[in-house]
Amino acid sequence: MKNIVSSEKLKIAIFGKTNSGKSSLFNAVLSQKMSIVSDEPGTTADPVRKALEIPGIGPCVLVDTAGFDDLDGELGRKRVAMTRKTVDGTDIAIVLLTDCDELELEWISFLKNGNIPVIPVIGKCDIPGKERMITGTVERTAGRSPIFFSAVTGEGLSGVLEALKEVSVGIRNSGTLTGELAGPGDSVMLVMPQDNEAPEGRLILPQVRTIRELLDKGCTVVCCNENTMEASLGRLSSPPDLIITDSQVFAKVWKLKPGSSRLTSFSILFAAYKGDIGIFMDGTRRMSSLGPDSRVLIAEACSHVPTNEDIGRVKLPAMLKKYFGSGLRTDIVSGDDFPEDISSYDLVIHCGACMFGRKHVMSRISSVCRQGVPVTNYGLAIAWLTGILDKVDIPGFRKV
């Protein structure tokens, strides 16, 4: 399980009202007490996450959320807002029902409209007289029969696990980062970022993930940075079939690469693997309509301490202003801090999202598209700004 990064694990979230038994179910699935269980409403505030491995499913992240009916005061509304944000990254939803009222049915519909499979569970079934006549209503709304669960007796836990196993089939991204760009026997050069403010030799997730995949495919891998690339090429007996670079040095790498070598970037690979490359390419083409008065939102998937060489906070804004004019405005958000209303922006540029799962990225793309705002990706945007978009290779997309 340690060899699979968090963004590649299925995200299973438990939703329901306050005191519906969400934390009890969370602890039962984990077979340990991770969430505090109490009769006091609002015990769970921020989402509680725990990595685990479920037989027949594999590595997952289980999430316990605050009650979606907790609207008592400002704190309650903030809890519900956090619960709603959890939906964006959810692959499978367990909805714990108490009385199958309008709010619970609305949440089932809300999740299903977001293309999230829903497993309905009726909790506290050990309580005498617990109504089971709501099964038909739940079936019609959720599209499957509810599972009756008791944290006291353990009834229904095996049914929940079986349902998760059934629903999980086919959810994980079955493609590969490099797609058709690299195959057995190919030689691939990876041009790593040369970050003067990072510890020497540091590798970050996109590079680690790419190296692992290329080796598994049977490729020969050579690593260097933009300052050692020329010397590394000189030591090779033949030019590499493919060069994968950090996007921020596209211009330098393009000038150094042999004519027969194909070129792409880590960010572009992640854009195709985790997002909708067609939508991203359309957003990239629409960059030509930007001007000095435009407003651009730059979105980072991870939260980190900015550096002077930060690509999203420093280099990309500088490139945009140099190309379109200093009046162009850039706003930056990170982590889960993605605004619901982005209608005032002329373009959204998202990072490669190596820390997000595909469901999370696609949820953001859908939100942006609904509001009529074009969206692209760091690597594609930088390739366009550098003037080489039509010369780089993009998995699953023909050259423009």
Q: Specify the number of helices.
A: 13
**Which ranges are low-confidence, i.e. pLDDT below 50, for 5 or more consecutive residues?**
196-203
Mean pLDDT across residues: 85
Instruction: Give helix % range.
Output: 25-40%
Broad structural category: alpha/beta
Strand content: 15-25%
Radius of gyration: 24 Å
Walk me through this protein's architecture:
There is one protein chain. By secondary structure, the chain is α/β, with parallel strands linked by helices. The protein contains 13 helices and 14 strands. The strands form three sheets. Strands 2-3-1-4-5-6 form a six-stranded mixed beta sheet, with helices on both faces. Strand 11, helix 11 and strand 12 form a beta-alpha-beta unit. It is globular. About 2% of the residues have low confidence.
Layout of helices and strands, plus pairs?
Blueprint: E1 10-16, H1 22-30, E2 48-54, E3 58-64, H2 73-88, E4 92-97, H3 102-113, E5 118-122, H4 135-142, E6 147-148, H5 157-168, E7 187-192, H6 205-217, E8 220-225, H7 229-234, E9 242-245, H8 250-256, E10 262-265, H9 266-274, H10 277-285, E11 295-300, H11 311-324, E12 329-334, E13 347-350, H12 358-370, E14 375-377, H13 378-386
Parallel strand pairs: 1-3, 1-4, 4-5, 5-6, 7-8, 7-9, 9-10, 11-12, 11-13, 13-14
Antiparallel strand pairs: 2-3
